[in-house]
Amino acid sequence: MTDQLNDQPAGRDGRPSRRLVLASQSPARLGLLRQAGFAPEVIVSGVDEDAVTAPTPAELALALAEAKASVVAARPEASGALVVGCDSVLDLDGEPLGKPADAAEATARWKAMRGRAGVLQTGHCVYDTTTGRYASGTASTVVRFGEPTDEEIAAYVATGEPLHVAGAFTLDGRSAPFVEGIEGDHGNVIGLSLPLLRRLLGKLDVGVTELWA
Description:
- Helix content is 29%, strand content 23%.
- It has helices at 27-35, 57-73, 103-113, 150-158, 186-190, 194-203; strands at residues 19-22, 41-42, 81-92, 95-97, 117-128, 134-145, 179-183.
- Strands 1, 2, 3, 4, 5, 6 and 7 form a seven-stranded mixed beta sheet that branches.
- The model is unreliable at 1-12 (pLDDT under 50).
- It comes from Streptomyces chilikensis.
């Protein structure tokens, strides 16, 4: 489908012309949207991520995003809204790495990642509950990891942060010094690609500026 964009001003009262709902409890995604001028509501999907499977990490991230968006879009409280679902998976040697189950797994993962590169895949799905249409896609960013020592890894895992993020790392937290660089969208690694979001909204004939608060 060809991208379309219909940039219109917000309503006369200064509020967005459409409600935006984020189907995620991620504070990082919420923060990215707010910094970009949106004022999303949050409705957590409750999707069992372990029950969703796909052949590749990229397809898994997309399937999870679509599942989250569709579940929230079906709820009465989301009526009339644009629902955004996202999910991130780190592709390391073709293996999908989500949130580690415990400290031991987070530690083992960091020891496997250091000095190497992986691809952070983030699935995005925007569901228009007014029309029943949706648009989805995946953004990919290469992440080059540094070589933290065993002591640094242990200290990082002890903070508890890696247990709550896909791939056991984040660019906007304590693991930032352990990431040497990225190739691609910075926001995508944090949890949401704003350029991809704009393109998906365009496919639904919604201009991004319509949703600015």
